[in-house]
Amino acid sequence: MEISLIFRIAAVGILVSILCQVLKHSGREEHAFLTSMAGLILVLYWLVPYIYELFETIQDLFVQ
């Protein structure tokens, strides 16, 4: 896992939390929820290849 991925995840977390706070204080709680879900989906989209690689490595470990 590259260090840049960790920085990207941290940046998305910071931006999403700021946007959610601004949206909640302006009375748009539905939009805040959708923003947090979009951030979560984006981060999961970045992590899926690494999770797949982990499962492949574990499978190769037990098959041999």
UniProtKB/TrEMBL annotation:
The keyword ATP-binding does not apply. It comes from the Bacteria. Pfam families: SpoIIIAC. The chain crosses the membrane at residues 6-23, 32-52. InterPro entries: Spore_III_AC, Spore_III_AC/AD. Coiled coil: none annotated. Keywords: Membrane, Transmembrane, Transmembrane helix. Signal peptide: none annotated. NCBIfam families: spore_III_AC. This is Stage III sporulation protein AC.
